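RECORD TYPE: inverse folding
INPUT: structure tokens
STRUCTURE:
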């Protein structure tokens, strides 16, 4: 304002008041205006917001950041249907003022609020500079629209609602219309009838007939009239041609390509009569891609190195109406495998190998029969006795070695055989896992000893299979408790990941076990699992009935992780969490009091992160994670 005052226009024959603001606005600039309750004027500036009551003789009320305003540089003011005043600022976004009290609407990010509007559902639409539109309901963000949802630009200049309830959005690249019944945007550019390149800031006016006027550098554009109808005719899309190894090919559906013709470029396009520049495309190559590719304006798709297989290319288009082509245009083709990967080659190879193997077996059988006849004539009773004794000794040796390997790790067993003793060793990086059955004692009271031992044995056999797949070492079982460790006796840099994966699989196994027992009317067994990582000392104790065991504070802390956990949960320490947080989603429990250990950071492992998981529930690792951990079995082995 030049004279630094706000002029109030009254009906004909009434006085015209002027509100003097020069003494309070920074740089003598008015940045936003709004009419509040009867006789109330809201004036925004570079140094806050003022509320005037002309003719009352009272001092204006000043709102700054100290009074709850989001930012002192006010960019826009709006009064909704309920009388709430909404104030936009350049940095911290939006402030709402109810009954004179200002409250900052915290949305978790910085943005400049450029304009406001309220739709028929009572939601407040907030236009921003560069971040699209934010939709608020009861002061909370419920939706957000950007160019990805169909806006012409993320820089919003003005907002208006017509008589039909459609929200009109003025941007620096044209107009958008939001159809509240169809939840979609229509775009209006110069070619679609919009007279200006961009809408001027807050240059919007609602007309009595329900239409809206938008101001531009080229004049005003009226939209949203009563006679307007929504036309929803999607553009026609067609596949115009394709290139194979950079050479044009005729469009013949179902064509078969040689295995050397793997570079394919498909050209497509559409016919849009209203606004060709607003057309967007999506395409997918079935047989290679599972989902549609992101929306694009390009009119060709390039696949530089297709593997052998059958493919169907599909493409659809959307123009300013927001309607997609249905059905999409399609083109099918096949890339043949090389001759040495064809079915007839595999068949011939299998026949050749079969005939060769059969012939070899027959020759070997004939040789063995001849040799056996010769040996039978030469061997005497003594030789037969020696052979029998040797076989018996060898069988006993195998049995003894197998029994020893069931008790001790292979490295420790070999050391005992060579040196007669096993040296205790310190391992700096080890993950120790404990499990314990909650409700075991109660269930045991209702079972015979045979039933109890059989069910516990079946459960621990499954545990043995799981830790074996993840290359962990079983230490011991004590009653209904099970103890194992990763990183002993061999150093393993992925000890923590493998221990947590094993813990998750044990948790899923026991959850299914619980459901089965409950379905049979039995008392369920619920497992607590705890893992901690750190240094341990490992070795063999005793001379009779010896066993491989581990000691140290890490073992005690791991036991506290199990006892401080919850039934059905995998509880890990903060040390373990730091080692595995890249692959697992965990819930921080805070510092939990552990017996004789004080307060320890603990986490519940929720699931494997989606990028490392082979299933949507996050219970099984994908092949990428297994390969990273050095587990060479296919992912189906870890189901």
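DESIGNED SEQUENCE:
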């Amino acid at each position: 304002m030049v004279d630094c005052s706000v002029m109030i226009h009254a009906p004909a024959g009434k006085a015209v008041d002027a509100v003097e603001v020069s003494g309070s606005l920074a740089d003598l600039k008015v940045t936003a205006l709004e009419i509040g309750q009867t006789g109330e004027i809201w004036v925004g500036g570079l140094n806050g917001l003022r509320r005037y009551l002309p003719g009352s003789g009272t001092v204006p009320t000043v709102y700054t950041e100290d009074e709850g305003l989001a930012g002192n540089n006010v960019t826009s003011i709006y009064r909704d249907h309920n009388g709430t005043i909404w104030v936009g600022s350049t940095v911290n976004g939006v402030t709402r003022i109810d009954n004179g009290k200002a409250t900052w609407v915290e949305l978790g990010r910085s943005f400049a609020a450029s304009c406001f509007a309220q739709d028929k559902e009572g939601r407040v639409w907030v236009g921003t500079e560069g971040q699209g539109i934010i939709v608020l309901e009861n002061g909370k963000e419920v939706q957000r629209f950007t160019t990805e949802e169909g806006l012409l630009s993320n820089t919003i200049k003005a907002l208006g609602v017509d008589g039909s309830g459609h929200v009109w959005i003025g941007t620096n690249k044209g107009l958008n219309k939001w159809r509240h019944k169809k939840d979609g945007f229509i775009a209006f550019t110069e070619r679609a009838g919009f007279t200006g390149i961009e809408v001027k800031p807050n240059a919007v006016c609602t007309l009595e007939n329900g239409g809206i006027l938008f101001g531009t550098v080229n004049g005003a554009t009226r939209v949203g009239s009563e006679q307007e109808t929504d036309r929803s005719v999607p553009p026609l899309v067609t596949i115009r041609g394709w290139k194979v190894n950079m050479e044009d090919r005729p469009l013949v559906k179902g064509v078969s390509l040689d295995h050397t013709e793997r570079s394919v470029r498909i050209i497509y396009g559409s016919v849009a009569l209203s606004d060709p520049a607003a057309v967007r495309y999506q395409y997918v190559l079935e047989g290679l891609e599972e989902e549609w590719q992101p929306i694009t304006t390009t009119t060709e798709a390039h696949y530089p190195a297709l593997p052998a297989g059958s493919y169907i290319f599909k493409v659809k288009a959307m123009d300013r109406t927001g309607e997609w082509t249905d059905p999409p245009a399609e083109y099918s083709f096949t890339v043949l495998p090389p001759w040495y990967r064809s079915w007839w080659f595999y068949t011939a190879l299998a026949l050749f190998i079969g005939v060769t193997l059969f012939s070899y077996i027959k020759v070997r059988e004939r040789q063995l029969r001849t040799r056996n006849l010769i040996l039978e004539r030469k061997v005497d009773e003594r030789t037969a006795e020696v052979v029998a004794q040797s076989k018996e000794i060898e069988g006993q040796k195998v049995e003894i070695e197998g029994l020893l390997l069931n008790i001790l790790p292979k490295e420790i067993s070999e050391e005992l055989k060579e040196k007669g003793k096993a040296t205790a060793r310190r391992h700096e990086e080890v993950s120790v896992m404990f499990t314990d059955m909650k409700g075991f004692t109660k269930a045991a009271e209702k079972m015979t000893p045979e039933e109890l031992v059989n069910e516990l044995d079946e459960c621990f056999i499954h545990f043995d299979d799981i830790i074996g797949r993840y290359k962990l070492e079983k230490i011991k079982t004590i009653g209904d408790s099970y103890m194992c460790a990763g990183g002993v006796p061999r150093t393993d840099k992925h000890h923590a990941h493998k221990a947590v994966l094993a813990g998750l699989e044990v948790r899923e196994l026991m959850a299914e076990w619980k459901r089965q027992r409950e379905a049979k009317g039995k008392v369920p067994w619920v497992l607590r699992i705890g893992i901690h990582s750190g240094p341990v000392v490992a070795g063999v104790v005793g001379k009779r009935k010896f066993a491989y065991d581990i000691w140290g504070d890490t073992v005690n802390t791991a036991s506290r992780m199990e006892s401080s956990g919850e039934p059905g949960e995998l509880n890990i320490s903060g040390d373990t969490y730091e080692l595995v947080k890249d692959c697992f989603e965990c819930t921080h429990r805070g510092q939990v009091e552990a017996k004789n250990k004080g307060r320890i950071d603990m986490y519940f492992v929720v699931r494997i992160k989606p990028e490392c998981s082979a299933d949507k529930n996050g219970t099984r690792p994908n092949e990428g994670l297994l390969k990273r951990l050095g587990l060479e079995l296919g992912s189906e082995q870890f189901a």
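NOTES: The longest helix spans residues 343-378.
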